[in-house]
Amino acid sequence: MEVEIATIGGYEEVGRQMTAVRAGDDVVVFDMGLNLSKVLIHDNVETERMHSLDLIDMGAIPDDRVMSDIEGDVQAIVPTHGHLDHIGAISKLAHRYDAPIVATPFTIELVKQQIQSEEKFGVKNDLIKMDAGETMSIGDSSNVDLEFVNVTHSIIDAINPVVHTPEGAVVYGLDKRMDHTPVIGDPIDMERFREIGREGEGVLCYIEDCTNAGKKGRTPSESVARRHLEDVMTSIEDYDGGIVATTFSSHVARVKSLVEFAREIGRQPVLLGRSMEKYSGTAERLGFVDFLDDVGMYGHRKSVDRTFKRIMNEGKEKYLPVVTGHQGEPRAMLTRMGRGETPYELDQGDKVLFSARVIPEPTNEGQRYQSEQLLRMQGARIYDDIHVSGHLNQEGHYAMLDALQPQHVIPAHQDMKGFAPYVGLCKSEGYQLGRDLHVTSNGNTIQLTE
Amino acid sequence: MEVEIATIGGYEEVGRQMTAVRAGDDVVVFDMGLNLSKVLIHDNVETERMHSLDLIDMGAIPDDRVMSDIEGDVQAIVPTHGHLDHIGAISKLAHRYDAPIVATPFTIELVKQQIQSEEKFGVKNDLIKMDAGETMSIGDSSNVDLEFVNVTHSIIDAINPVVHTPEGAVVYGLDKRMDHTPVIGDPIDMERFREIGREGEGVLCYIEDCTNAGKKGRTPSESVARRHLEDVMTSIEDYDGGIVATTFSSHVARVKSLVEFAREIGRQPVLLGRSMEKYSGTAERLGFVDFLDDVGMYGHRKSVDRTFKRIMNEGKEKYLPVVTGHQGEPRAMLTRMGRGETPYELDQGDKVLFSARVIPEPTNEGQRYQSEQLLRMQGARIYDDIHVSGHLNQEGHYAMLDALQPQHVIPAHQDMKGFAPYVGLCKSEGYQLGRDLHVTSNGNTIQLTE
Amino acid sequence: MEVEIATIGGYEEVGRQMTAVRAGDDVVVFDMGLNLSKVLIHDNVETERMHSLDLIDMGAIPDDRVMSDIEGDVQAIVPTHGHLDHIGAISKLAHRYDAPIVATPFTIELVKQQIQSEEKFGVKNDLIKMDAGETMSIGDSSNVDLEFVNVTHSIIDAINPVVHTPEGAVVYGLDKRMDHTPVIGDPIDMERFREIGREGEGVLCYIEDCTNAGKKGRTPSESVARRHLEDVMTSIEDYDGGIVATTFSSHVARVKSLVEFAREIGRQPVLLGRSMEKYSGTAERLGFVDFLDDVGMYGHRKSVDRTFKRIMNEGKEKYLPVVTGHQGEPRAMLTRMGRGETPYELDQGDKVLFSARVIPEPTNEGQRYQSEQLLRMQGARIYDDIHVSGHLNQEGHYAMLDALQPQHVIPAHQDMKGFAPYVGLCKSEGYQLGRDLHVTSNGNTIQLTE
Amino acid sequence: MEVEIATIGGYEEVGRQMTAVRAGDDVVVFDMGLNLSKVLIHDNVETERMHSLDLIDMGAIPDDRVMSDIEGDVQAIVPTHGHLDHIGAISKLAHRYDAPIVATPFTIELVKQQIQSEEKFGVKNDLIKMDAGETMSIGDSSNVDLEFVNVTHSIIDAINPVVHTPEGAVVYGLDKRMDHTPVIGDPIDMERFREIGREGEGVLCYIEDCTNAGKKGRTPSESVARRHLEDVMTSIEDYDGGIVATTFSSHVARVKSLVEFAREIGRQPVLLGRSMEKYSGTAERLGFVDFLDDVGMYGHRKSVDRTFKRIMNEGKEKYLPVVTGHQGEPRAMLTRMGRGETPYELDQGDKVLFSARVIPEPTNEGQRYQSEQLLRMQGARIYDDIHVSGHLNQEGHYAMLDALQPQHVIPAHQDMKGFAPYVGLCKSEGYQLGRDLHVTSNGNTIQLTE
Q1: What CA–CA distance (Å, rounded) separates B447 from D228?
Q2: Measured distance CA(C175)–CA(C173) in Å, rounded
Q3: What are C4-26's pLDDT values in tens digits?
Q4: What pLDDT, in 10s, does the model give residues D342-379?
Q5: pLDDT of A294 higher than 80
Q6: How many C-beta atoms lie closer than 10 Å to residue D51's C-beta?
Q7: Which residues contact A55 (CB under 8 A, 6 or more apart)?
C-alpha cells in the first residue's frame, strides 16, 4: 500500500499546523491550525470575517492547496488538542472536505465553539468524539485504523493520533510532555507507544514536535510547577493586600492549582476574561475539574468590571483574581489593570504572579516588559516564570525514538533552525538525512512506501 | 555609644567577605573570606603556602589593614557559614587578632579543617561553638551582645549574626534564602527577625546580600529543587546504564536528596571527590544527616579509582556516583571522567545530572561547556539546572526590610552594579542614598552613631 | 566661596537631565530634559497641554522642587545641545526662573521651536546665543564665568559648559564623543580641556556622562560611520528599485552623509517626516549644511504623501527617501511604509538602511523587530547598525580625567547600574567613593567647598 | 554527462571542509580542512604525528572514505585559500590520491609548509600554481575545465574554483566577502561570476558558505576596518607608553594596515609569534606586501624574547608589537604577556588592540575573557572588535544568486542551524527544498545530472 505524508503547515513556523497521511486511497488530516502572530502583526484584522485565501496569503492558516495533488479521499480531520495553532483554521478549511472531525471530548467542544463564532463559512462536518485509548476504522478498506494514544501537554485531553496501515503505523507526535505525574488526567501512555513500536510492522513514520529539541534533559512534570506555585503562594499567605495571578487560560491544570492554592491561603478564586471563562467553563461542564459552585468565572466586560468592584468593596485580601494577559497582550485584562482601566486598584506591595513564561520573540518580550512596567508603576511586585513547558526536551525525544523505533522520522512544529537540534539528535541514533530522516517544508509530500 | 561599620571586603566583588562592627570599644568581625577566582586565574598558585600580603595584593583575601584605623578591640571573629568566600581567609588573617572564632558547630568544623591544612601561619584562636538562637556577651561592657538567628542557605547550619548595642541592633544579613520548608534543619526564623525589628531601639543597621537583588519574585524553597530532582530521577528509574550526578559538595541538603532518590530508584549512592567526602562526612559526624552505613564516601584519588573499578565490575546500573565538577572545573572528577581519565567508562545514553547552575561568568561558562562537550563525546546525555539559588530574590529583600525596619541599610556581597537593583528597591521603600542607604567600597568605614 | 551641586534629574535614568551649580549666590542650571519613555508608555498623552506637576509625577521631567533648598539666584539656564532629554522640559520649567536661556545658536533655535509649540505655559525667558569658545560673566560678582567648550556629539553645535569659580572650574561633561575628524564642525577642543585642568585652581568638579562607561576602547569617529555608509551605498549603486534610509532626524551630520552619498549613486535625496524637516531645515537655515536647492524636505502628512506619489510616478530608482522610524516607532514614517499606509510601494528586493542602532530596551526592540517584519513582508531587505555612538567609551573617560584632573567626580546620565563601570574606572585612577567620587540620586545636593 | 557532488566534510560544522565534484569520470576535490576545535579540546594532542584514521574518529579531518563510492579518478585537489579549515588535512589525506594540488601561489606556499611539518605521512603530490582568472583542463576528456575566479576574503590570494562541464558550471563559493575596495589585491570579480551565470549552460550547481547567512545587510569592506583602525591608532598617537596589537596572523591585509598606521604614529612595527612570521613572511617573499627592510618578524621563542628585551631597553613608546593571541588562546603570545611570562612589561594605561572578533563559542569566550582579565590586572586597557568579517552577509548571498542563477544550490560551511537562514533566503528566491535546494550532511552524495 502506498503511504504518503503531506507536510502542509507548521513546517516553517510554530503555528498553522496541518499534516495529511495518505494510506492507499484514504487520507487522514492531522490538525488545521492558526498562526496567530501573522494576524496580530496587522492592526484591526478580524479573522472571523476573512476568507481563507486571504488568510493563506497572510501566512495565517495552512495553504492546503497541495491537497489537490493527493490522490485519495479525506476520511477524517483529527485535531490533536484544543490549542489554536492546531484547531484555529478548522472553521476556514474543514468545510472543503467531506469528512468528520474526530477528536477527544474537550477538543471537540472547543472546535464546536470555534465553528459557532465563524462568520464567513458554514462548517457542517460531523463532530465525532473519541477518547484516548480508542480506535476507529478509516475508509472502507478495513485495514486502516485510527488510534488515539493518551499524552500529557499544557492543555487537557491531548492525544497523539496513530494511523495503522499494513505498512506499519504512522504516529503523529506533536505537542506533548512526558508527564508521569500530571495534575489532571492520566500519565502519558508510554506502554502503548512501546507496544506500537513492536507490534505488526512496527512504526513506519514518526512526526515529531521539535519545540524544545535544543533543550537539555527532561521537561519537568506539571506537578513540579504545582509545587513551585505552592511555595510561592504559601509564602504570601499573610499578605493582606491584592494578589493577582495570570496563566494560559487554556492551561486548565494550572488554573486548577491556582484555584486550590487560593483556597489554601484563604482567598476566593475568580477567573476573569473571556478565554478564562471559555476553557475552564468547558472543562468544568465536561467533568475534568470540579471548581465547586463558588468559583466565579466571568468573561464579559461588564460582569468582569462588576466583579472587580465587588472585590474592591469587600476587600482585595479576600480574593485571587486569575486573569488573562500573561504575555503582556495590549488588550488583555492584566495589561488593562496595569493601565488603571479596570475598577481593581493596585497598591504598593500587591503581588502579580505570572504562572507562564514569555514566549521568546521580541514582540512578546516588548509587550510583556511594558505590561510589567505599568504594573510596577502602580506599586505591584512581579513573580514570574512559575511554569514548566508543555513540550518534550531532548531526553523525551530519545525516549520516544527508543519506544517507537520508527523507520522514518519527520521533524515538525518549527522552522529549519528549530529542526536542527532534533536532526542532530536523530543522527546520533543512526538516522540519516535524506534516507530516513526528512527535513521538509510547508507544501511538500514525502512518499514512504510504494 | 559610637557604632561604626568597616566594610573591609566583598563590597566590590562576590568573595573575600569581611565586615567589622565597632560598638564602643568592642569590635566584632563578620566573615574572613576568599575570592577563589583571583587565585584560579593564575597557574599553579598554592594558597596554603602563601603569605597574606601577597594574597591581599592578588585581591584574593580581604585587605584588613583598614582595621588599624578602628579604635577598639576585636572580641570575636564570626564566620556566618562554611562557604569559602566567608571562611577561606581565616587561616591567613585570624591569627593577627586576639579573639576567638565563634560559629555554629558545622561551620566551626570546617574552619578547624581549614586551619589544619594551612602551611604558612599557625592559627591559635579559640574556636567557640554557638547554636542558632543563642546569645553571648561581647567584651566587658555587658551591654553588647552577639546573637545567632537561624537562616536557610545552600549550606547547613547557616546563621545571621546580630550585634545588640544600646543604639540598636546591627544585623549582618549575608547569604540566605527565605525557606519555610528546607530539606535539612529548621525554617528561617522570621519571627525572631520581626522581634528584633521591634524590641528596644530596633535595628540600627542592616547589611544585606545583594546577589539576587535583580531577580523578580521569590527564591524557591530547597524542597522545590528536591521535587524537581525527584521528577528527573524517577523518570530514569528503568535505565540500565550509568547515571552520574554532580552538585556543590558543600550543599549537604542536595546531596541528601541525591542519596535518597538514588535508593528510591534502586541504586547505591557513592560520594566521590575530596570535597564531597569532607562536607558530607563532617555533616554525618555532626548528626545533620544519617547516610546509613552503606553510603560510600571516597576522597583520595586511589580510593576513588578503586571505587570506580568496583562499579565497572559490578555494573554501572547498580550505582549513582555523586561527584565534584558541576562548574566544569578542569581538575574536578566529572571533567576527568569526560576526558576518560578515570576507570568509569561512559556509554552512549548514560545520564549526567548537573544539580547546579553555571555561575554566570565567561570562564566558568567556557569550562562548563567544554566539560559537557567532553562528556557528550563519550556518549553522555546532560540534565542541567536542577537547582534553586541560596540567595534572596527581591521579595525576600522586601520581607527582610519589613521585618527589621532598619534605620540604615548597607548593600553588600556584590560590586556596585550588583548593588544597583537593591538600591532601587530600598529607594522604593523610602531610603535615600547618602542619608540612610550607604553604597560603599572595600576599605571604607561608616559611622552610624556618635 | 561655597560651591554646591544639585543633581536634580538624570541621575536615576537616561532622560530628564537637570543639574544646578551654585557658586556663592549665583546658580547656573544645566539642561532641563524630558524622559520620553515615561510619556510614551501611556496611551494618548499629549505633553504640550500637561502641567509640569503631572509630568513630574510621571517621572517625565525633572522634579525641580529641590531648587527651593538652594540659596542663590538662577542666573542662567544652559542646555548643552538640542536633544529632547536635555531641552524637552524647558517649556515646562524655565518660566519659574528669572534667568535667560543661554545656548549655542542651533540649540537656541530648537529651544525656540519647542517653546512655540507649548500650549500650557508661556515661557518668556530671554534666549541668548553663545558660541563654543566664548565666555560670559555670571551674576554681579565678576568672579564667576560661564564658558562653552566645543565638543562632538550626535547632534551639531554641542558644547560642554564650564562654570569658572574662585574655587576652580565646574565642568559639565554630558553627551560627547571624542571625535577628531567629525563630519560637520570642529573637532572636540581637547586642548582647551587640558588648559582648564591646569589653569588657576584647576577643576573642582567634573560631571560625566556614563552612557558607554562599560564599553571598551574608543567610540569611533563619525567619519568611520560615514565610511561604512559609503561602503553600503556604493555597493547598491546599480540597484534599480527602491532604497530608503532612516536615521536619527537630529543627527544632521549623518543626514548630510546620506544626502551626499545619495547624489554619488545618482539618486535624489528627500527628507520626509516632521522631525526630519525640523532639524535639517534648521541646520540649513543656520548654515551648518548646504543641501543645495534641490533637497526636498517635507514634514506635513499631505506633502509627504504627495512626494511619495511623485516618487512612484517618476521611478523609485531616482530617489533616496530619508525618513523617520529608526527605532520602529509605531507612528513613524518607516513603520507606516511597512504597513502599506503610504503611497510608496515596496517591492521584492528593495533596500532599507537603518543608519542607527536599536536603543537596547525591550519596548524598542519589540517595536523595531515588528517594523522590520512588516517591511520584510513587503519584500524589503534590511541593512542595520550603520552607526557609531555619540557617547564616550572607556578610553574617552580616561582621557577626560587625564585632561581635567578634577578634584571631584560625579557620574551622571544613567542609573546606578550604569554608573558602576565608571565608578570602577575612577577608582583605578585613585578616586574614592564618598571622598571625591560621588554616587548620587535625583534630588540630592553635594557641597564641594565651604 | 553525470555530475555528482560528494559533501564530505564541513557540512555539519565549520572546519574540515571537503567537497568532491565528479563530472563523468573526472573528479575534482575542493579543500581538505582541519577542525581545530576537535583537536584542542583534548590535552596534549600533536596532530603532526597522528594517523588520519584517528583524526577522522576525533572529527578533526574529513572522513573521506565516502570517496571509494565515487566512480571516477581524482584529477585535482584544489584548496581555495590558505586557512587551516581548508588546507589543514592535506598532509593527512592528499597522499591517498594520485592527483596534483592546484592552488594560487600564496595558498601553494602554505600547503608546502604544512606538508613539510608533517611527521607521519610523506605527501608527494605535485603542487601546481594557478592564478585567479586562469583555467586548466581536467582529465583527458577535453570538455571539463577548472577555472579560478578572484574573490576577497580575510586572507590574500583567495579564489572560488569553478568546474566547467557540458552540463553547466559547478561553482564552489566558500569563504568570501564582496569587497570592492580591498586593502590588498583586486576586488571580487563579480563581472566574471555574472558571465559564468549566463554563458553556455549556465550554472548547474552553486555551493555556498553560510557562515553569516543570518546577518542582515552587507559585510563591510576591509577598507572600513582599516578606517576604523586608523581612527583608533591616530587617537593614541601621543601616548608615550606601550601599545600592543593582535589580529589573525593569516590576515595579511590587516597586518599591513597595522604596520602602516604604526609608522604613521611614529612607532616601529614588529611581528611576533611563529604564525605571524609564517604568514607575513610568506606574503612578503611572494610580493603581496612590501614591509621594507625594517619590519622585524620573529617566530622563535628566543628571538621573540630578545626582541621584547630590546623594546624594553629602547623604550616601549618606540614600538608596536603585533602578536598572536586574539582569541585568548592559552599559549599564545598575548596571553603569555598577560601572565607576565615575557620580558615585555605592561604598565598602567598601556593599550592592547584586538583587531579581531571573538569567535562566538563558550570556550573561546572564556579564554578571551581570561586573557583580557590578566592583561587588565597588569594595567592594560583593551580596544576590541576593530574588525570586519570575511564572510558574506545576506545581501552578498542575494547578489551571488542573482549573478550565477544556479539550477541547484547546496548550503555549506555550517551545521543545519547555520544553514537555516540561507535556506530561508533561497526559498524567498524560488528554490525549493528537496528539488533544487539540497540540505545535506557529511558523507552524502547528490547526483545532479544523469
Answers
A1: 50
A2: 7
A3: 999 999 999 999 999 999 999 99
A4: 999 999 999 999 999 999 999 999 999 999 999 999 99
A5: no
A6: 11
A7: A39, A47, A61, A89, A92
Going by pLDDT thresholds of 50, 70 and 90, the confidence category of residue A141 is confident
- If you average pLDDT over residues C245-261, what whole number do you get? 97
pLDDT for the residue D199: 96
Residue C421 has pLDDT above 80, yes or no: yes
D424, HSE (Cβ side, Cα atoms, 13 Å): 18
- The three-state secondary structure class of B331 is coil
Three-state secondary structure call for residue C236: coil
How far is Cα A197 from Cα A174, in angstroms, rounded to an integer? 17
Contacts of A420 in chain D (CB under 8 A): 415-417, 419-420
* Pairwise CB contact (< 8 Å): A234 & B180: yes
Q: How confident is the model at residue B273 (pLDDT cuts 50, 70, 90)?
A: very high
pLDDT at B120: 85
Percentage helix, strand, coil for chain D under 3-state DSSP, each rounded to 5: 35, 20, 45
- pLDDT above 80 (res D34): yes
Strand, coil or helix: C176? coil
Reading the block at residue D72, the C-alpha cell is: 571516477
Q: Is B368 part of the contact surface with chain D (CB cutoff 8 Å)?
A: yes
CA A343, A345, A351, A354 torsion: positive or negative? positive
Searching chain D, which residue's CA lies closest to the CA of residue C235? D180
ipTM of the complex: 0.95
Q: According to the 3-state scheme, what is the secondary structure of A200-212?
A: CCCEEEEEEECCC
Question: Across the interface, do D365 and B370 touch by the CB < 8 Å criterion?
Answer: no
CA distance B220 to chain C (A): 26
- Whether residue D209 is predicted with pLDDT greater than 80 in this model: the reply is yes
Is a pLDDT exceeding 90 seen at residue A169? yes
Please, which residues 373-432 of chain C have a Cβ atom closer than 8 Å to chain B? 415-417, 419-421, 423-424, 427, 432
Q: Which CATH number fits domain A222-383: 3.90.580.10, 3.40.50.1100, 3.40.50.10710, 3.40.50.300?
A: 3.40.50.10710
Question: CB count, 10 Å around CB of C263?
Answer: 15
D222-383 has the same fold as D3-218+390-449: no
Closest chain C residue by Cα to residue B431: C441
Q: Is the dihedral of CA D76, D80, D81, D83 positive or negative?
A: negative
In chain C, residues with a C-beta closer than 8 Å to the C-beta of B441 are: 427, 432-434
Option in B424, B427, B434 nearest C440 (CB):
B434
Q: Under an 8 A CB cutoff, do B217 and A181 touch?
A: no
**What's residue B29's pLDDT?**
98
User: What are the extents of the domains in chain D?
Assistant: 3-218+390-449, 222-383
- Region of A185 on the Ramachandran plot (φ > 0 left; ψ -120 to 50 alpha; else beta): left
A3-218+390-449: what fold?
Metallo-beta-lactamase; Chain A (3.60.15)
Q: Does A434 touch chain D (CB under 8 A)?
A: yes
Residue D440 has pLDDT above 90, yes or no: yes
- Are D363 and B364 inside 8 Å of each other by CB? no
The nearest CA of chain C is from the CA of D130 a distance in Å of 29
CB C270 within 8 A of CB C295: yes
Does B417 sit within 8 Å of C420, measured CB to CB? yes
Residue with cell 568592642: B26
| pLDDT band at C447; cut points 50, 70, 90 | very high
- Residues A206-222 have a mean pLDDT of 97
For chain C, what percent of residues have pLDDT higher than 70?
A: 100
Q: What is the pLDDT of residue B294?
A: 74
Residue A346: all three cell numbers together: 493596585
| Distance to chain C for B25, nearest Cα, Å | 25
Neighbours of B366 (CB within 10 A): 22
Cell numbers that stand for A415 in this block: 522552522
